[in-house]
Amino acid sequence: GRPGVKGIRVCGAHQTGKPRARYACLGWCIDYRAGTKMLTMPGDETLKRGEAEKLLPLLEASPVLRNLKGRTTARHVRLKDGSSLFLSSAQAPGQRASITVQDLFMDEEDLYQKAAGKGDPVTDFIERTRSYSFTRKIMRVSKPVGDARSSIWQAVTRDVDLTLAYRVVCPTCFAPQFMSPERVVCQKLIKDGQETEPSPAEI
């Protein structure tokens, strides 16, 4: 809710709670920030499943959000404060062509280019917030796909004011350590019942 924070970018592995964080922030914005919102996903099927299995249950489970939810149609939730929550996929540029949004929530953006086949869906979605350049909130959440050209990897390593990363406590010295590959040590590997030295690929 800090006025100076215009965006949050989350790059993480599988099964690390990214969707839960995204929906929690979306729910907060519905409650505290009147204005048009958009939730985006890579494909139409992913969007349909996310709406049925995550978004609508979230809106029903919370008494506050349930009271704010108005009429719901395909890919659109009308809120009782007069604003809207739109749902859009990277596969369908027509869904976002004429929509201006204040708060944007992007899910698995590294898959957008493959799903769309052409164009730059990530840039297209961000352009939808241009009219709210001083008040917008953009949350980009994705696991990295490919090499350093990954969209989310570039997002978290360029033009970022503050970077946060997980740290774990060393069982020997109890000092917190960043989980970078060069800090992970595998002493022995059990293979076919025998202890062996791990190869670089197995470390």
Keywords:
24% strand; 203 residues; alpha/beta; two-stranded antiparallel ribbon
Summarize the structure.
The protein has 203 residues and is an alpha/beta fold.
Task: Describe it.
Strand 3 (69-73) and strand 4 form a beta hairpin. This protein is α/β, with parallel strands linked by helices and 203 residues long. The mean pLDDT is 86. The protein is 29% helix and 24% strand.
List the helices and strands and how they pair.
Layout: E1 7-11, H1 18-32, E2 37-41, H2 44-61, H3 63-68, E3 69-73, E4 76-79, E5 84-89, E6 103-107, H4 112-116, H5 121-127, E7 137-142, H6 151-157, E8 167-169, E9 176-178, E10 189-191, E11 194-196
Parallel strand pairs: 1-7, 2-5, 2-6, 6-7
Antiparallel strand pairs: 3-4, 4-5, 8-9, 10-11
> How many DSSP-defined strands?
11
Tell me about the largest β-sheet: 7 strands, mixed
| Series of H and E elements | EHEHHEEEEHHEHEEEE
State the strand order across the main sheet: 1-7-6-2-5-4-3
Q: What spatial form do the alpha-carbon principal axes imply?
A: globular
Query: What's the gyration radius in Å?
Result: 20 Å
Give start-end ranges of low-pLDDT stretches: none
Helical percentage? 25-40%
Can you count the helices?
Answer: 6
Q: Roughly what fraction of the amino acids lie in strands?
A: 15-25%
- Give the mean pLDDT: 86
Tell me the span between the first and last alpha carbons: 41 Å
> What structural class should be given to the helix and strand makeup?
alpha/beta
